[in-house]
Automatic annotation (TrEMBL):
Amino acid composition bias (Low complexity), ranges on this chain: 51-63
Organism the protein comes from: Cylindrodendrum hubeiense
GO function term, MF aspect, one: methyltransferase activity
Region (Disordered): 1-63
The family this protein is said to belong to: Belongs to the methyltransferase superfamily. LaeA methyltransferase family.
Protein name: Methyltransferase
Amino acid sequence: MGDSARTRSPKADAPATADVENQHEDLATSQAMLAPTHWENNDGDEDASDTDSSLGDDTTSSTASISSSILEYRVINGRTYHAERGDAQYWASNDAQANESLDVIHHTSTLILDGKIFLAPLKKESVAKVLDVGTGSGIWAIDFGDEFPDAEVVGTDVSPIQPSWVPSNVKFEIEDFTLDWTFPDDSVDYVHMRFLYGSVPDWDGLFERAYRVCKPGGWVESHEGDPMGYSDDATLKEGSALGEWGKFFHEGGKKLGRIFTPLPGNLQEKGLKEAGFVDIQSKTFKVPVGDWPKDKNLREIGRFTHLSIETDVEGHISFMANLLDGWTQEKVTLYCMQLRRELRNRKIHAYYHQRVVWGRKPEIQPPSED
């Protein structure tokens, strides 16, 4: 970011869609991902001198009674991942360390949104049922349940990693969002989806399912990021660990048949429009990585972005590295060591993009009297 950008909020830093498209195209056509052996001889010689409620006891609020097959986690490089289930392919770990990172990411997202956890124009009196798709640790659903105590909040995920002690209006269910959803048509007032990139085989199909379960007049909101890193002053170097970060997901996504970069293709907006939503709005944010910004609010966001990555670097990339040739556990460890060095370097002014898009399902029009 330039100096002028550092004095504004993330909202003011929202780039035009074309800018995101162009930046991503530049990265996509840059040099290929470095070989795993590159990190064996990397001595980290970068200049790092600038481093630095009510509780419910109802059994429906617990995932303790689920079948044992759901708990048959896959193990990759010592980390656990969700059990094989349908067409689900979530790439991040589901253990305690990963949950801690998810909670930090949630806090970072609230900072980006000026303390909010949603942007759709919801009214408490008209929100009776809420669906949080891909709930992860469940922290968003819990926070929403606290803010909307009269609403029933259901979080779904392929992993039963959510807490059992939650507000009485919150519950969690095991569900693969890539399959048919079990919720009735026109039954949900608000559908929330966050950071599903890399797990969605069909983005249009995702929003079609959300449209089906959403009540007429209800809202669907999608939060997505782009793992590709950028800098406006060329401090994020080609061949650096931070510069290579997004390539893990880009190359791994090719193997999975999944897209990790929904922003350049406007997949959220297009999906909502194709499904039939109206009043679609979008906000794109520049999210700094590290505490390099001069602006106090942006610096706080950058610190938590840094923390969310550093808390679980290995859990973020082990699954993807396992798909790519030559990435042994030792080489992943060496890469992660270098990435942590760069995360602490204030001279690297890296950021990524995050976008929030929301739309309304049209009300049913009364039949004409003609």
